[in-house]
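User: Fold this one for me? It's catechol oxidase.
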Amino acid sequence: MASSSSINSICLSLDDQSSKTLTTTTLSSFFAKPYSPRLLKRRRSQSFHVSCNANEHDQNIKANIDRRNVLLGLGGLYSASNLAPLAFASPIPPPDLKSCSKATKTGSKDVVEYSCCPPTPKDLNNIPYYNLPPMSKLRKRPVAQDVTKEYIAKYQLATKRMKELDKDDPRSFMQQANIHCAYCNGAYKFGDEVLQVHQSWLFFPFHRWYLYFYERILGKLIDDPTFALPYWNWDHPKGMRLPPMFDRENTPLYDARRNPHVRNGTIIDFSSPRDEVTTDVGQTVTNNLTLMYRSMITNAACPLQFFGARYVLGNNDSKGQGTIENIPHTPVHIWAGTVRNTDLGGGKLSLGEDMGNFYSAALDPIFYCHHANVDRMWNVWKGLGGKRRDITDTDWLNSEFFFYDENKNPYRVRVGDCLDTKKMGYDYAPAAIPWINCRPTRKGREGKVDLTNIEPANKVFPIANLNKPISFSINRPTTSRSQKDKEEKEEVLIFKGLKYDTNKYIRFDVFLNEDEDVNTDELDKVEFAGSYVNLPHVHAHNKKMDSDEMFQLDITELLEDIELEDDDTITVTVVPKTGGDVISIQSVAIELLDD
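Assistant: Here's what I get for catechol oxidase.
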């Protein structure tokens, strides 16, 4: 059996010379060398039921566009948003600013309201669409760990001036932070439904537009149209620490409401939001790179797996995070936020502020640096080839948001206009991506788990809570699948009817061919299937407890690597890491899904 240290060496084997060539234009050709195109096609997992066919809803395009135009014509730009219920689904329109209400601070026992509505434009009914301005030079977003003293001084000055703007100025730091709160914590509603840009396919395009205008405002404040936000490349070992420029007290980039454990070069841990600092740095880095590989490659073969579940007005039964939103996006938020229930002063107990709660996340300047790398992952993912491409469903392309630009002018923006960062006037400085070599190869155990004393899934589920590890056996729909069958259909482990308190942090890990004594501190092994993570939020249905959510994990690759392809029955172990007492699961199954 390979040791963890040897896996570290394998995983980090990309030298500087080879990894520097891994730009978004060369990723596809590089990736084809160590991995077969067949494996690229079939790797996938997700927390919702999807098809690889991103065009499956295109037959409704004309109906959706016509429906949307009718709604807009009924009463101006925003009043259509309040019509409910709708006759059928349509793209998400810009929010109704006139009816913006107080948001809800999630994570507390009682409902705590928080005001984060934006300034209201003078003419709500005639807000124009934003046209990308001409450019003479691309803004190049640098690696946060590599910036110069001159860049830091410029970034600090721009942030300082943003914080000094009048509180009612839509460009001010507080108003910019409020954008995230309003879109993510229940301030905007469509009839009885709460607008929520997380846990759906709106996650990536919303945050791209959000950072685009934030970046342009910073540049305007220092009279530098070429200024670009830095990106925190937490997907590389050298970037798995808080960038030093954000850890300097009494500077505009410092936030006192961070967890103290993020300071002084502490390594971030994607696999656990624990408050204690890990001492095994090598294993933590290896786990992080393994999770990056799972999120970018194994579990993200198709657009809806990467972007998240469909989310349209009038039909929002589905819910699910994309792979990167799940991990590492959410663990980074939890890691940087304050320890929950600690004293913030004045008798207030922490709800995870700032980064660890949607309502307050953007009050920490590191938020924008963090999301710049999330946005970069969108570019990198598309460069991996295969079916990794933007969604073509018009319900996604025609969804809209509302922002103010650097001149305080209000605009509507479309998802379809933010698919190419270079057309938007910016790009990313190249950086190595060593996780591309981190497919797990080590087995956590020799042989197969003895099924004699393992209960079948139909006797274990439903479970009322996940307050301890559970193991169960489960039958597969078929065995010894041919190569052609594997290419056509995915074998997927599906947890159905997840119900949990959305106010709580939730995380559980899933393993194949392991028992309840599995070592969950080491994820760089073939038995590790994936993890589910939740950050406290307000759901689109405004319900504290969500039901009928599905969490899917593709196990085709794992069955090959563990040598279980010929087995009729396999063992699955689920290990709660946090919040297990507030989550229940109705059932579990293994199904074959078409692309």
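One thing worth pointing out: The chain has 16 helices and 18 strands.
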